[in-house]
Amino acid sequence: xxxxxxxxxxxxxxxxxxxxxxxxGLLLCPAALGQGKGYRSITWEKFKxxxxxxxxxxxxxxxxxxxxxxxxxxxxxxxxxxxxxxxSVYKDxxxxxxxxxxxxxxxxxxxxxxxxxxxxxxxxxxVHGLDEQSVKPWICLCYGNPIYxxxxxxxxxxxxxxxxxxxxxxxxxxxxxTVTRYKDVVAxxxxxxxxxxxxxxxxxxxxxxxELIRKIQPEAVILVTAIHDADRKIVLEALEAAGKLExxxxxxxxxxxxxxxxxxxxxxxxxxxxxxYNPKYKxxxxxxxCPSILEWTHALANYPWTEYSxxxxxxxxxxxxxxxxxxxxxxxxxxxxxxxxxxSFGLIRSNLLLQLIYKRPAYYAVQQMAGFFDGxxxxxxxxxxxxxxxxxxxxxxxxxxxxxxxxxxxxDRIPSDELKWDRVDLTVNGAAFQDPVYVxxxxxxxxxxxxxxxxxxGTNTELKGLPVWDSPVMLAERAQVExxxxxx
Length: 488
Fold this sequence. Notes:
Layout: E1 21-23, E2 26-28, H1 42-49, E3 55-60, E4 73-76, H2 87-97, E5 101-105, H3 108-111, H4 121-132, E6 136-141, H5 159-162, H6 165-182, E7 188-191, H7 199-216, E8 221-224, H8 229-241, E9 250-253, H9 264-277, E10 282-288, H10 307-323, E11 328-330, E12 336-338, E13 341-343, E14 348-350, E15 356-359, H11 361-372, E16 377-382, E17 385-387, E18 393-400, E19 403-410, E20 422-428, E21 436-440, E22 445-448, E23 454-457, E24 460-468, E25 473-477, E26 483-484
Parallel strand pairs: 4-5, 4-11, 5-6, 6-7, 7-8, 8-9, 9-10, 10-11
Antiparallel strand pairs: 1-2, 3-22, 3-26, 12-13, 14-15, 16-18, 17-20, 18-19, 19-25, 20-24, 21-22, 21-25, 23-24
Helix pairs in contact: 2-4, 6-7, 7-8, 8-9, 10-11
């Protein structure tokens, strides 16, 4: 995650150490937090009662990861290497979310505190804990290690590692131990995290690390981490010069932008660049999310985010990635307690004691999307359409068992906090429905469409007065939409 070096706001003091916590107007004792008693999410309650003026017929069914065969979705389980969260607090919520992969950071400094002595107990818990949930862990190999003169913090420099023969040898020995230990569970390895502005040193680290991984696990998927465009060019040229373009598989990017829909021109530029070197290369959205409050540092800082706009942001990013066939990881499963702040990107809200408080609306939004848009749903692409709305609509097309599925949302502005829908006349080209229903993807409410409000004409569907807003809503055939009993 990027860091903003220009903190313009200071944190308000936290009411800690008093033995009580005031949450949403409720007085709670710490023992009650995270235990299913007393806490509540007012924002989620508002999402559940809000909705377009249509006849609700049910709630979209959600699925545990164990019920899903394949999926493009991942969730971030990062920073456990620095103890910014506790895996045991949220383990069960990862499988419940319905994603099939989870990103971990390997934590060299946490595993090797004494030279040559490895303690993988903490990482064993995470790797095998995800696997027990039918969530495949993928590991970012990082960061440095102070006992060898390098740093383990976000943004740490690579020079102390790659310029020191002792440190580099120790790093590769650690990588060997890690890959050997987990190769039967972990198939995807990302080399480092966000070494921005360090292209030459990163190329050195990447090639040496990837060669070692290939030796131990020939069929591994190796990911080049998120780097700047200039660094990416340096790394590509280094791989080409070494005759090792086949050494890596995926190129990760972290598209933190206030409007998630605005990132894709840069993504397509990146895709064109890497494929010009090797057409087998794939882009991978490996870490991105949205705060739920105004943050004063880190990504997307200095903007008044809320849990309303966070849920919309995450859904728009997921929808935009899915329609383009890009595998996607949501940052992050739970709030993270950095040394200087309690970061609010979590799908789950936590406190300074690293306890679970409640699931945010964004958790349910991701759960709805992951449950429906599994590996059996095929992206068709952005669909041509005609609309009465003055705003910019995105219409994303998919197929599920030969039936059309469409996601529709305003993508022209930063997600708002408003819980209201516009009525829009819309013609969708290339999606002819026979018996469509309307699904609001944050709450999971499924609605009946009046038969007078839509008409299929050839390969197109005309819709009158369709409720749309700045978050994806879904049109799908009734037979493809499984309903559950009751709401979350």
